[in-house]
Amino acid sequence: MSNPGSWGTEEPVSSRGDALPRGRAEECRNTMNLLTENTFCYQFGNQHKVKEPNGRRKTYLCYQLKLPDGSTLNKDCVKNKEKRHAEICFIDKINSLNLDKTKRYEVTCFITWSPCPFCARELAAFIKDHPHLSLQIFASRLYFHWIWGYQVGLRHLRESHIPVSVMSEPEFADCWENFVDNQGKAFKPWEKLTQYSTRIGHRLTRILGKIHRTNLVSEQSSECTQDENDCVDAIRNLSLDAHHPHYEEWTEDECS
Asked: Crossing angle for the helix pair 86-96 and 117-129, nearest 10 degrees?
């Protein structure tokens, strides 16, 4: 048996809970590995730049499945597998629970990077096919936010009644409490967490409010003027797939 809290930045994320018989989600056990403090701070940190020693920041998705009364039925963390993004692994996990379709369920996802266009479409289709589920997504950072297709994906989620918001201190604290081997320590915000969150939130608001592509081009030019690092990152990541994020300037001790 693996030791809870044993995940490092390179350890796989997995669940040891068996699939439930149909309609028996209430009996689900929360047998999950917890993120280490360093993994949480490095992967979920919303700083714009981090240094390279720990590798590229990956897509981690932590979710909680609840009944409308707030009782938790299941929670777990997943991350990208080869040729399978974290969001698709999340869909697989929920499908494996064989939830009772006569009941309502609420799912909250905390994700390190906002979904790519493909995953946005898959999430929207999943919720459309499962109207007994309501899904809300909180993202620490926006992925390829300056690219039109990625912005369309975020708007598609909103139009599919899947709210997408930026993680702020309460969401980071919730994630810390439920998915991190925190050794009983309270969440300690890193420097400028609120400032970063506010800035990312404003960017998401602009994206969700965009309708015409001509306005998009104008705002993209403005954003590149304000933040040349985004343009550098865009060039840097042209050869990367949808979930191999850019480097950002940060050190682990900022979160400790």
From this structure: 20
pLDDT at residue 73, as a whole number:
93
Q: Are the C-beta atoms of 65 and 73 separated by less than 8 Å? A: yes
Amino acid at 127: I
Q: Do 114 and 145 form a contact (C-beta atoms < 8 A)?
A: yes
CB 112 within 8 A of CB 57: yes
> Which DSSP state fits 14?
-
Say which of 87, 159, 228, 254 is annotated catalytic. 87
Q: Above 50 in pLDDT, residue 85?
A: yes
Pairing of strands 164-166, 133-141: parallel
Q: Is the pLDDT of residue 42 over 70?
A: yes
Place of tokens 């020693």: 53
Q: Going edge to edge, which strands form the sheet with 72-79?
A: 72-79, 60-66, 105-113, 133-141, 164-166
Query: Cβ(49)–Cβ(250) under 8 Å?
Result: yes
Please spell the DSSP secondary structure of 129-141, one letter per residue.
H-TTEEEEEEEEE
Residues 57, 248 contacting (CB under 8 angstroms): yes
Q: Kindly state the average pLDDT of the residues 119-131.
A: 97
- Joined together, the tokens standing for residue 53 give 């020693």
- And the tokens for 153? 């994906």
- Check whether 16 has a pLDDT greater than 80: no
Record the pTM. Answer: 0.73
Is 27 a residue of the active site? no
